[in-house]
Description:
Elements: H1 10-30, H2 38-46, H3 53-86, H4 98-113, H5 118-141, H6 149-171, H7 175-185, H8 194-221, H9 225-230, H10 235-257, H11 263-275, H12 279-304, H13 312-330
Amino acid sequence: MRSSPVPKNFPAVLVIGLVLLGVCVIASLALGSRLVRFHELIDGLFHHQADSYGASVVRKRISRTVFSLFCGAALGVSGSLMQSVTRNPIADPSILGVNTGASLFVVCGIAFLHIGTANQYIGLALAGAAITAVFVYGIGSMGRGGATPFKLVLAGAATSAALSSLVTAIMIPRSSVMDQFRFWQVGSVGSATWSAVAAFVPFLIAGMLIAFMTAPALNAMALGDEVATGQGVRTGTLRLVAALGGVLLCGVTTALAGPIGFVGLLATHVIRLILGPDLRFVIPMSAISGAVILTVSDVCGRLIGSPGELEVGVVTAFIGAPILILLAMRSKMRSL
């Protein structure tokens, strides 16, 4: 497969993305219900002996910031993979019902298996995400034309609605389950700990490796299955592996942070508009833009809800839903 040239604006976009990422990190550490002064920020980051209240606030926010960056990057790359696998420019884990499938398995684990550890959440969420992804793709593949973008979105929406009803049916008669599940359900990075970050890292690395390794073949498949097969790509295996990477990334994020929607859609769509369709550049920039979007949303949620906070899943839904409607109205549902 012949490599395409590097987009001319890629270096500038990369630099802008990294600068925005740095600004987001500083904002996440400094802003919230308690505003942190510059010297307190420096003390919290570099002077571990400092025992001022502001420095301690900064230290507590570090794990939250790192976790937010990881979750945003994972959702951004997951969106890139799912859009490529389904050839649907508005595909997203939340739109295809994958997040809801993970949520159902987690609430079943809370209600019937009394789970409570990060690894238990991850295992059940990954299983739910994978089964739902296979189910939605199977339903969307039925009938004439196979798995078209429009049919996949419809199948995902219907599946998500059905699974959401099951989640509600399980929770309502169980008040203890509802108390444990309700904060997780809206999507939040506020309870992030270093143990959650450590549990996240292996899955993040595995998903990112899959994304980067499959990017050239996915570029070929975007030209059509026949063209890709002619270039030696096994399209069935490629779809399976790439979908596994997407499910892995969105599943572990859903397990630890809750079902945060629209980040993958927004991150990847914006990057495709700027850089074009080449996944060798879309994937890394989607990771950066996803991290920026989620971290900015988290900071906005803290400022809007001060002295409490508005969960990040609510903020991303508030931003993402109108944009999704706009994209759906303008899109002609063409394959990527």
